[in-house]
Amino acid sequence: MDERQSQIREGAGLEESRINQDFIDFLRKWSTPALLVIALIFGVVAYRNWSTTRERDRIDRAFEELSLVAASGDALPEQYLRVARERGNVRGVGSMARLGAADAWLRAARKGVAPGAAIGPDGELLTEEDLLDAAGVDHALSQAEALYREVLETNRTRSGGTLHAASALFGLGAIAESRGSIGDAEGFYQQVIELAETRAFPQIAAIARARIAGLGELGDVPEPVRRAEVPVEPEAAAESGEELDIQMFDPELMEQLEGQRSPGDEGAPGQDGQGAGEQGTGDGERGAGDGGAG
């Protein structure tokens, strides 16, 4: 009995030893590939997180640069175009930057001054050469038109480019209005309506219809006037009644005015030529002036 139990215990030990050896052999065979697979999975996840963060930072920097240029108030077209060149690979930024440059040229044409022209605190141009003549205005409109058309061709059929294409068409319509081509302007706004209705943007279509309705109210655009051509204002008359040139009044008109006053008016001039009125400061001053004339 004791010998049999001893044999059972010895057999159990051999079986357990074989199980442990099999596990060790399994680990030796598959541990390295399993660790490589696990490391590869962690590597892929880490790379995706890093790539996503980098892409987000790149997009944020692109829009930040565009916002800084737009926030400057009256940025030069070249500033917008620099953003378009350097950040044009960010979806939407290139078109938005070119629209900003085109708008800057269009504003310059409408104002009649070169983009970025220095203007003093009194609203006067600091440099006379910044005032655009007819050729300069046409050049500014041509620059804006080329940029609007580039944006339009890029976004007309692109998914997600509806707003950019509509903005370009609005810009082309504004250029046509500036040139007096009302028919061409209406054609561009009709294209806006068709595009907006196809892409389900009813608000944009409504704006285009309003622009078409207002085309008939446009008048001729006045030519810019140089400051040297503005008539000089006459010197202001002196505030004191004693310093007024009495000869500027018509004596007959003064007599008629005096005859219309009632003898009892407190503001009427007295016999000594001085105003006796006390009710109104204005009446008293007029009385003093009339008395001086007498």
Characterization of this structure:
- The protein is 65% helix and 0% strand.
- The longest helix has 70 residues, at 2-71.
- The protein has three domains: 10-71; 73-226, Serine Threonine Protein Phosphatase 5, Tetratricopeptide repeat (Alpha Horseshoe), CATH 1.25.40.10; 241-258 and 273-293, no CATH class.
- With 294 residues, it is mainly alpha-helical.
- It is elongated and about 100 Å long.
CATH class identity of the largest domain: Mainly Alpha
Number of strands: 0
Tally of domains: 3
Q: Number of DSSP helices?
A: 9
Shape: elongated
Instruction: Note the main sheet.
Output: none
Helix amount, in percent? 55-70%
Q: The CATH topology of the largest domain is what?
A: Serine Threonine Protein Phosphatase 5, Tetratricopeptide repeat
List low-confidence stretches. Answer: 236-249, 264-294
